[in-house]
Specification:
Blueprint: H1 3-13, H2 25-32, H3 36-48, E1 52-55, E2 59-62, H4 67-80, H5 85-106, H6 109-124, H7 129-145, H8 150-167, H9 174-192, H10 196-207
Antiparallel strand pairs: 1-2
Helix pairs in contact: 2-3, 4-8, 5-7, 5-8, 5-10, 6-7, 6-9, 7-8, 9-10
């Protein structure tokens, strides 16, 4: 295994958490029996990947996971690799349906109010589809965050970032946006009433048209 692979394994087994500082370059070089320059190259690579972070007067630390940054990176990589947009859309539908039971179980009144506010903003900007689409995106991401499971939230945000650029343009019409507003409103009512069957039915039909 090369130095980078060995170092990655070391990080995984180190027990370090996001925000923790790793050992200085010189100590790491001694630990791995390599030059300080070799260690610096590995650290630079991991910083560029967003795994580590260098900060003045602090040193190199484990970076907190940034789902948005990962989403943007994967979206670019997948598009360059020719990933089918339909695959990402299918994954997004699967995730949104799967998290509904958790959303109904864990959502609080403040989160529900925030989602309703996003839906009102979506309706307000129905005649400005590109602006409205951002509220639609934020509503669905907000719904996913309400599941309370960080791993699921992260995957969902990645999937949303992948499919959205390829597929959203055809839905940029006031009529379709207003239909989405009605479906969102019904979905949020079902969630508030803890009616999982109704919520599943609404979101299944809604996502079949997105």
């Amino acid at each position: 295994m090369n130095l980078e692979g060995r170092f990655r394994r070391y990080l995984l087994n180190s027990g370090l958490q996001p925000g923790d500082r790793i050992h200085p370059e010189l100590e790491l070089a001694e630990r791995f029996a390599v030059s300080r320059g070799d260690i610096r190259k590995v650290l630079t690579t991991l910083c560029q990947e967003g795994v580590l972070e260098r900060r003045p007067r602090v040193g190199t630390t484990i970076r907190h996971f940034d789902a948005k940054a990962v989403s943007e990176d994967l979206s670019f990589r997948f598009q360059m690799a020719g990933l089918k947009a339909g695959d990402a859309l299918e994954a997004r539908r699967t995730i949104e349906l799967a998290i509904l039971p958790l959303v109904i179980l864990r959502i609080n009144s403040g989160q529900l109010q925030d989602l309703r506010a996003l839906n009102r903003a979506l309706e307000e900007y129905a005649d400005r589809p590109k602006r409205a689409d951002r509220y639609d995106r934020d509503l669905h991401l907000g719904l996913l965050r309400c599941c309370g499971n960080y791993t699921l939230q992260s995957f969902a945000e990645v999937i949303t970032g992948i499919f959205r650029p390829q597929l959203r343009a055809k839905w940029h019409t006031p009529a379709l946006i207003r239909r989405a507003v009605k479906e969102h409103r019904a979905l949020l009512n079902a969630i508030e009433n803890q009616d999982l069957e109704e919520a599943n039915d609404i979101i299944s039909k809604h996502l079949s048209r997105t």
